Amino acid sequence: MILQEKIKKAELYEANSNWEEAITLYNEIVKEDNSVQNIEKLGWCLSRAGKYDEAIRYFIQLGEKEPKMAKWKYMIGYQYYSKKDWNEAVKYFEETLKIKPNYLVVKYRISYAYLQLAGTYKKLTKPEFWKALGHIKECHELWESFDEKTKNKEKHTYFDINFLHGKMLMDLPNHREESILYFENALKIKDDEICRYNLSKTFYLMGKHEEAKKWIPNNYSYYVVELNAYIEAKLGNYDIAIDIIDELLKRRKKDYLYAFLAEIYLLKEDNESAFDYANIAIKANYRNHKNHYVLAKVYYKYNLFDSAVKELDNAIQLKIKNYHSEYDEAILLKEEIMKKIPENYNEDRNMLKKLYLNNDKKIYTGTIYEYDKNKGFGFIKYSGKKIFFHISDCIFDNPIKNKQVSFQRIKGKNEKMKAINVKWK
């Protein structure tokens, strides 16, 4: 096969994303003709195949051939970026910008890389966060300097720039209005569900719940479903929010969802259900400081001040232990409660006993009496009685008739007892 035929065949493999076949041919081609164009093609196909270290070697070769060409420094940086080696990526992106300061995609990618280096924990105290913000701001200045032809060519990168800028600012309460503008700018370029979700979340964080509902995408990703439930709860549609979370719990048994249900029931002034779900959340994950905070709020509703303070202390200590930071909400609530505790206060032990009798901690045993797979619920027979259970409250996925199980009981929405934490015996 002559060289031109090999090149055409390799390009066809490349066009169809058949990277391994393209790599094999381009390796042969480079041995015959190690021109810049052929080496670039080989490096690119290696990159697309995830062979980043091999790609780096070829882009280094290109850099040696053309040391003033910014693209080769960028492509080396891009391999490290793809490997999530953010420090090396930043190093090569900085070198790229020394050669070509107005390289838009590099300005975007260096901003993203710096943001990853900043992380999420106390990111505003990290210089990397502010470097990321500085680069992303400069992207807009570059964009404004472009003619219409260049803007049309770079519009997909500018979508990414606006989206990233919006994401960076949405966590800064004083900059959320600005964040909304960037998300809206991004959506003018391309309608994107993840961008719509983040725009909706920003409106939610600002307390603009009707606007948040307007922008939330129509899909069943768990984070979209969760946000939808939070919005409905803020709009006072508590039963809708409960139904959404109940449905989500069928596929995602997370402690924070039980804690969220507890908070909704508190808003509904159904304190018994709030107590039930707050306890389920803690049983599911004792180490989550937020679960203890929610249970403290329930105790506070019952004027059980000592129990509330105890749970707030647990919450405060857990946040210090796990995140090395103060739990401001818990500290403020504790201060509020301490001011309300009367002199010679004694906790109402009968009230506590009543709560825990309703929220039965006893472990029961029984057998699966019947189960409707399509509806996701059935009944367990125990001590001559039957009790309702739902698949979302089972530790297993496939209930088997007549098989023995253990479970606990709580009151359901209809005030009847239901089984939870259902396990094989």
Find the structural class using helix and strand composition. Answer: alpha+beta
Please tell me the overall pLDDT. 92
Strand line-up in the sheet with most strands: 1-2-3-5-4
Helix content range = 55-70%
The strand count comes to: 5
User: Spans of 5+ residues with little confidence (pLDDT < 50)?
Assistant: none
Biggest β-sheet description: 5 strands, mixed, barrel
Percent of residues in beta strands? 5-15%
Shape: elongated
Q: Give the termini distance in whole angstroms.
A: 69 Å
Supply the number of helical segments: 21
- Give the H and E element order: HHHHHHHHHHHHHHHHHHHHHEEEEE
Topology of this protein?
Elements: H1 3-15, H2 19-32, H3 36-48, H4 52-65, H5 70-82, H6 86-99, H7 104-118, H8 127-145, H9 148-153, H10 155-170, H11 176-189, H12 193-205, H13 209-215, H14 222-234, H15 238-249, H16 255-267, H17 271-284, H18 289-301, H19 305-323, H20 328-340, H21 349-358, E1 364-372, E2 377-382, E3 385-390, E4 404-411, E5 417-424
Parallel strand pairs: 3-5
Antiparallel strand pairs: 1-2, 1-4, 2-3, 4-5
Helix pairs in contact: 1-2, 2-3, 3-4, 4-5, 5-6, 6-7, 7-8, 7-10, 8-10, 10-11, 10-12, 11-12, 12-13, 12-14, 13-14, 14-15, 15-16, 16-17, 16-18, 17-18, 18-19, 19-20
